[in-house]
Amino acid sequence: MDSNIPSAGGVLLGEPFGPDPFFRRSVVFLTEHSLGGAVGFVLNKPLPVEAGELVEEPALAGFPVYMGGPVEPMSLHYIYSAQDIFLSGAVNINDHIRWGGDFARLKELARQGRLFPDKIRFFLGYSGWDGGQLEAEIINGAWRVAQTGLRRAFSDLPGLWASLAAENCFADWLL
Predict the structure, then answer these.
(1) Beta strand 71-81 with 97-99: parallel, antiparallel or unpaired?
(2) What is the DSSP string of 52-113?
(3) What's the pTM?
């Protein structure tokens, strides 16, 4: 498989000096990619709010929320560890990650103390592309497809973008 072709479960790095300030130095986890388009969530833009505040659920206090993207910025989404959590209605991204599912069950797991912040990420909004749009943006240099393990991509390191750019030998972006 071509390493410049994105796929669900893949990670994109946004160019550092591009015209779109929202996506500069963004790390995007793709949850969907097909001929019809792509959907993903920005992993490295934390918001000053917790999931418990957004949904008025005390059991979700301490669960950080990230700005997932500029599309539908008031919609709440979540991706999580497929090994540790099962929610009906979820989309399997790969063997390790699921997207969405039964939110009432998710809150129940949190109340039971069976949901942990290191196993789930909450997002407001999402990043979306029409069919062919993401590929065109990659060709034009707005994005690069990073090769990384999921554990590394989901870390909360302050320099996640720079670390992934260095690991993937995108030296021209690190100047």
Answers:
(1) antiparallel
(2) HHHTT-GGGTT-EEEE--SEEEEEEEEEEETTT---TTPEE-SSSEEE---HHHHHHHHHTT
(3) 0.92
